[in-house]
Amino acid sequence: MTEQIALEVKDLHVAYGDKRVVQDVSLKFPARQITAMIGASGSGKSTVLRSLNRMNDDLATVTGMINFHGFNINQPNVNVYRVRQQIGMVFQQPTPFPLSIYENVIYGLRLAGERDRQVLDQRVEESLRQAALWDEVKDQLKESALALSGGQQQRLCIARTLAVRPEIILMDEPTSALDPVSTSQIEDTLVQLKEQFTIIMVTHNMQQASRSADWTAFMHQGRLVEFGPTSQIFMNPQEEQTADYLSGKFG
Amino acid sequence: MRAEKVDKIATAVVLSLAGLVGLLIISFLGYLLVVGLPNVSWHFLFSPAESFKSGGGIRDQLFNSLYLVVLTMLVSVPLALCAAIYLSEYAPQNRLTATLRLAIEVLSSLPSVVIGLFGYLVFVLQFGLDFSLLAGALALTILNLPLLTRSCEDALQQVPQLQRQAGLGLGMSKWRVTTKIVLPAALSGIITGAILSAGRIFGEAAALIYTAGQSSPAISYTDWNPFSPTSFLNPLRPAETLAVHIWKVNSEGLVPDARAVSNGSAAVLIITILAFNLLARLVGYLIKRRLAK
Amino acid sequence: MDKVKQELLTPSAESRQEWRGKIISYLAIIVIGGLVATILIFLTSKGVALFIQDGYSLGKFLSGVNWQPSHHLYGALPMIVTSFAVTLLAGIVALPLALVSAVAITEMLPPRVNQLIQPVIELLVGVPSVVYGYVGLTVIVPRLGRLFGGTGFGILAATCVLFLMVLPTMTSMTIDNLRQVPKQYRLASAGLGATRWQTITRVVIPSAKGGILTAMIFGMARAFGEALAVQMVIGNAAVMPHGLMSSAATLTSVLTTGIGNTVMGTTSNNALWSLALILLLMSLAFNLLLRLVAKKGAH
To answer: Where does residue B130 rank: exposed (0-12), middle (13-18), buried (19+ CB within 10 A)?
Structure first.
């Protein structure tokens, strides 16, 4: 197995004040693949995810190494904004800004100072196509993003993240607020996206993990229990806890 | 059966007492308008006050009140907004933040006369500003800061946390997230709060009698040089406001038509404050509608 | 790796923006914090000058009943008593009426009436205190004079004015607090067969208790610190009040009239600043009280 590694986590510990929520997690996320992180609520999977692009900076104490291209980004002197531009994030709830669809997509670019209309137009189309939203909205780019349906809004948020051209996209239960149809559209989108991007996704939805993820990490009570190819985790888990969780004994 | 009877009686009692309060309040407002409005005329609004004879207007007092509100808002809005940004976006959960919050609360509980005295002590005497619009505006700023900071902070807090995270997730700096995402979304709340606070300070008098002063020397509305002593824009001239005027005319006034002048002034004050309140609602509504589009 | 490392270690436009933001917002909060500290320090140092510089005894100041600057007598007790008296009287009359009005508005009257009343209350809260004082002077004082004899100026007139002034504030705060009681409580109570009145007295008011208390203290704090409206109707005689119709003076009214008539730094001026210090300490006490109520409500 000579997988390329996009991000490597070593001995990660996270604590909110005195409360330790993640302990001793080490993981290698393969590049241009989808990795799902599963586990019960409170297992620490979202906390790990949010640590990966330093979104936990103000909330928690994060220790351990997070290596991006072999360089530890969990150091105080690292420019967190550059990190987040490289490792983007999509959230549970769709979070369009109260602007037009077009302005939403190029939000990050505009802030980076890009003015060239052609570049912007091109990036909007490209990102929306990648997020599989282009055909639905190409005639209403100037209209408010708030008028879109929930599923469309979430794909818009994905497009907005893509437009910054990150290497890795973190997704925190991206479909938990959506209906089944939108969910399956997003899952299809993810499979397309992994050709160019590394996707790390937290999900509550076991079927979603088994359908779309190449790799699955199972977390329980702040610790990583098992990590491996999705088929192996689901068909032939090595740990008893994993098997119990997958069979619905707790969750 | 008994409980139902009690319910009926209690409802009747509560409603009639509330009706009584309503009547009291309506007659209070009604009285002010009925006796006040007949005195309000163009002549009253646009001619200067008299010291010893009747027929004086409130031109300068009205202008002073408005100008003072503008000056105060110029200082207090940026300060309150930045402080609110600190409290809402940057403040760590620690003792220092708790102390700062306590300080703002203490400030909001100070009686306006105490703030006026502090202004007299520091701005008028210590800084040598004398009785002036500037000293008055600084005193009103102190009066205005706590409530305005709170209303700005409330407006900022109303913006969903997810919107901030979405911005941070794109690699934006917190300051950018605040100015580009949070502030626009909170704008209607901030402006509404600012206008309401403007209405509040428009009618303030106790903080002003020893800061902005109780006299209004002749000013010229054609002199646009703010450094000229007779210019209407000069922030260093003493200025009696409308609310102070009502107090002054009634407590030591020498004009024979004090009643008429005060009645008219009170009506103008109330109508202006009503206008501020309506404007706040309107602006809030308009901005919300524009954002929703 | 080196390229990535270098890029991730160099500050970007974002880092600079972050600095700017921190500096601006921290500066603003420091200005406000410093302002409060300055106010407290200045007023305290001026307020204790009477005792330290002029050697006037604190006991005599607090318990003396004669305020006669010309005879070098600075007994503040009459003003302290009067301030508390008018505040408490106004609060005692205003509280039940505010509560009743709030209950009527939130629990009994249809929402449409509510929409009409809301702006009126907002307007009343915003009416300048000078206007309340003026109405007191021209309407209440003459009427009291005709009813009870005498001039009409005095404690009762001040109480009436303060009552009118704090009623809207107390009512609107009480309304807010009653509205915050979850609808489910009312439904659950009604579902158990309670009448509306039973629901109001056993569920709604008890769960808003802390907030109602806060509204009352807040209103009384405002009354205690009110200067001009009181000064216009109380008669301004710095003597111990002996009845509802007697002329008196509050801490604020003596301050209002006195500061302009004394020379900075003289004993009689310092005595006024000591009155201001009492006002300051009282407003801190009201603040503490509000915090205690809030803390108790949180449990």
So the answer is: middle
C184 plus C223 within the same structural domain: yes
| A110 in C contact zone (CB under 8 Å) | no
Give the count of domains, chain A.
1
| Chains near C (3 or more Cβ pairs under 8 Å) | A, B
Please indicate, yes or no, if residue C290 is contained in any of the structural domains. Answer: yes
C35 and C153 together in one domain: no
Q: Could you read off the pLDDT tens digit of each residue along chain A, which spans 251 residues? A: 457 899 999 999 999 988 999 999 999 999 999 999 999 988 999 999 999 999 988 888 999 999 998 899 999 889 988 899 899 999 988 989 888 999 999 988 887 778 899 999 999 999 999 998 999 999 999 999 989 999 999 999 999 999 989 999 999 999 888 889 889 989 999 999 999 999 999 998 888 999 999 999 999 999 999 999 999 999 999 999 999 998 887 65
- Two tokens at B235? 């922030």
Task: Please name which of A20, A36, A85, A9 lies closest in space to residue A191, comparing C-alpha atoms.
Answer: A36
Note whether C139 and C278 are same-domain residues: yes
* ipTM for the complex shown: 0.91
User: Phi and psi (nearest 5°) for B220?
Assistant: -110, 130
Look up the domain containing A217 and give its range. Answer: 5-247
Asked, for residue C150, whether it belongs to a domain, the answer is: yes
**Digits of tens for pLDDT over chain B (293 positions)?**
588 889 999 999 999 999 999 999 999 999 999 999 998 998 899 888 887 778 888 999 999 999 999 999 999 999 999 999 999 999 988 899 999 999 999 999 999 999 999 999 999 999 999 999 999 999 999 999 999 999 999 999 999 998 999 999 888 899 999 999 999 989 999 999 999 999 989 999 999 999 998 888 888 888 888 888 888 888 999 999 999 999 998 887 677 888 889 999 999 999 999 999 999 989 888 887 876 65
Interface of A with B (CB under 8 A): 53, 55, 81-86, 88-93, 95, 97-98, 107-108, 111, 144, 146, 157, 160-161, 164, 170
What DSSP designation does A72 have?
E
Q: How many domains does chain C have?
A: 2
Give the span between the Cα atoms of A35 and A54, in whole angstroms.
19
CB atoms closer than 10 angstroms to residue C212: 21
Tokens 């008196």 locate to C248
Q: Do A79 and C13 touch (CB under 8 A)?
A: no
Q: How many Å lie between the alpha carbon of B281 and the closest alpha carbon of chain C?
A: 10
Q: Are C42 and C154 contained in the same domain?
A: no
Domain with residue A228: its CATH number is 3.40.50.300
pLDDT digit string, tens, across residues C237-294: 888 888 888 899 999 999 998 888 888 889 999 999 999 999 999 999 999 999 898 8
Cα separations (Å) of A179 from A152, A156, A159, A185, A203?
11, 16, 19, 10, 15
Whether C41 and C144 map to the same domain: the answer is no
Task: Tell me the CATH number at C244.
Answer: 1.10.3720.10
Please give the residue range of the domain that contains residue C267: 60-298
Same-domain check for residues C134 and C217: yes
Q: At what angle do helices C267-298 and C209-225 cross, to 10 degrees?
A: 170
Of B82, B99, B118, the CB nearest to C42: B118
From chain A, the residues in CB contact with B172 under 8 A are: 81, 84, 108, 111
Task: Considering only the beta carbons, identify the residue of B170, B184, B292 that sits closest to A84.
Answer: B170
Domains belonging to chain B, first-starting first, are 40-292 (1.10.3720.10)
Residues C16 and C68 in one domain: no
Inter-chain touch C128–B203, beta carbons under 8 Å: yes
Chain A residue with Cα closest to B180 = A111
Question: Does residue C54 fall inside a structural domain?
Answer: no
